[in-house]
Design goal:
Layout (H helix, E strand, L loop, with lengths): L1 E5 L3 H12 L3 E5 L3 H8 L10 H10 L3 E4 L2 H5 L4 E4 L15 H13 L4 E5 L7 H12 L5 E5 L9 H6 L4 E5 L2 H14 L10 E5 H32 L3 H9 L20 H14 L5 H24 L8 E5 L15 H10 L3 E5 L4 H4 L8 E2 L3 H5 L4 E4 L4 H4 L3 H7 L4 E4 L6 H6 L3 E4 L4
Parallel strand pairs: 1-2, 1-4, 2-3, 4-5, 5-6, 7-8, 9-10, 9-12, 10-11, 12-13, 13-14
Antiparallel strand pairs: 6-7
Bound molecules: uridine-5'-diphosphate-xylopyranose.
């Protein structure tokens, strides 16, 4: 089997490298020549645990190649995956499909043989049909079929998620065209049969909606526990135990019930917004999701106010250490991270911010106010600080000795917005410790 992956972004790189690991010949194509040049030289433009090794090994064995030449990539391919970006369109919150449609047309024009054109990027319901029309128009004579195969990768554990997914969702056309697409995709995912991964074959529209519905549901789940955490604080309950007690009910499940400063990342904020817009346009609004979006946005702003309140109502002239800037650990991704709301607000309120992130500094720098200082280590950030705010739960923050941390600081305020520390231990070390939803 031979496939092309259009787009060397997060999804394209991880999926491409993993398909190569499955034994398929994969050619990743991107218009960004410097990116392709870097990849050919073994340099990975993103931080994702294990990806560098996977790319290196498969490139060395000749199964994984990189090019800027779409025609070369598509020639002889059994399937071409579209993994180009679908950012939020300015103004209306819809997903911007310019790249998807342009890539679909280019692939159709470049195709030398019948192939399956698979959309992997997260696209609104109805995009598959549009892609089909574009392809039919561009190459009426060639048997190109269209499919939807959404990805459910989490940043930081993307390779494990690809190799051992909970399910594979494949949306295909009706009839014989659909059968052909399905046969090709099932062959590509064959290694997953060994570990009995369910393959859900369905209509294209359904596959497209599954992705949005799953992400929106998870966003609702997180937002629900965040609100319950706020209530816990008022009534003296412990959100940790509430989440555990709820999650042990198999119908609810334990995952994604970790209270925090609000969800961020490249998917949840963008996908919830796109789903809400599509649903409004279709006259079937998803009010629960609309509310989730508003509650989550407000939460990030509230977190900054919480820091200010913990510092006695003002942070002017104070030094605040910030642990973690990325939207979650094990990534350098800053997209929609709570830090993008919290840090500027603290700077604006007159604080000096000393931040440390194990991987995110380079990405954070252009996105945060110029006045932010970037420390070389967690302890360096804490040095002389009046207050410490933990925003992202990197493991190395858990490992810090509380007494040493306290000794490095001038003040004693510790705001743990991810509940990583033990309240008793932190109080014993002399901190005025606050977390989310715990007494
Ligand atoms: C998510 C989905 O999990 C994945 O299936 C989809 O393909 C892409 O979007 P990702 O954005 O990488 O993946 O991160 P995820 O681990 O899901 O976390 C998203 C956000 O929710 C983060 O900001 C995280 O801190 C937050 N979160 C997650 C919580 O606040 N509490 C939780 O219990 C879980």
């Amino acid at each position: 089997m031979r496939i092309a992956m259009v787009g060397a972004g997060y999804v394209g790189l991880v999926s491409g490298a993993c398909f190569a690991e499955f034994g398929t010949d994969v050619c990743i194509v991107d218009t960004d020549a410097s990116k392709i040049e870097a990849l050919r030289g073994g340099r990975i433009p993103i931080y994702e645990p294990g990806l560098d090794k996977l790319v290196e090994e498969n490139a060395r064995d000749g199964r994984l190649t990189f090019t800027t030449d779409l025609e070369e990539a598509v020639r002889g391919a059994d399937a071409v995956f579209l993994a180009v970006g679908t950012p939020t369109r300015r103004g209306d919150g819809h997903a911007d499909l310019t790249y998807v449609y342009a890539a679909a047309e280019q692939v159709a024009k470049a195709a030398s043989n019948p192939l399956v054109l698979v959309t992997k990027s997260t696209v609104p319901v109805g995009t598959g049909q549009q892609v089909l029309e574009i392809v039919r128009k561009a190459r009426p004579g060639l048997a190109i079929t269209v499919a939807s195969n959404p990805e459910f990768l989490r940043e930081g554990s993307a390779i494990g998620d690809f190799m051992r997914p909970d399910r594979v969702v494949i949306g295909v056309e009706e009839g014989e065209a659909g059968e052909r697409s399905l046969a090709v995709l099932k062959r590509l995912y064959r290694p997953l049969n060994l570990i009995e991964v369910p393959i859900l074959a369905t209509r294209i529209e359904t596959a497209e909606l599954i992705k949005y519905a799953a992400n929106a549901f998870l966003a609702v789940k997180i937002t629900f526990i965040n609100e319950i955490a706020d209530l816990c604080e008022k009534v003296g309950a412990d959100v940790h135990d509430v989440a555990r007690g709820m999650g042990l009910d198999g119908r609810i499940g334990r995952k994604f019930l970790h209270a925090g400063p609000g969800y961020g990342g490249s998917c949840f904020p963008k996908d919830t917004l796109a789903l809400a817009r599509t649903a409004q346009d279709q006259g079937a609004p998803v009010k629960l999701v609309e509310t989730t979006i508003a509650v989550n946005d407000a939460r990030k702003a509230q977190m900054a106010e919480r820091v200010i309140a913990a510092c006695g109502g003002s942070v002017a002239g104070k030094t605040i250490a910030v642990f973690g800037l990325t939207f979650k650990p094990e990534t350098d991704d800053m997209r929609d991270a709570p830090s993008l709301v919290v840090v500027p607000r603290l700077v604006e309120a007159g604080a000096t911010v000393r931040a440390f992130d194990p991987q995110g500094t380079a990405m954070a720098r252009p996105m945060l106010p110029g006045a932010v200082h970037y420390a070389r280590s967690a302890l360096d950030a804490a040095e002389g600080a009046d207050a410490l705010v933990l925003l992202t739960e990197w493991n190395e923050f858990r490992a810090l000795a509380p007494k040493r941390l306290r000794a490095a600081m001038r003040g004693d305020v510790l705001l743990d917005l991810r509940n990583v520390y033990d309240p008793e231990a932190m109080r014993a070390a002399g901190f005025r410790y606050q977390s989310i939803g715990r007494p």
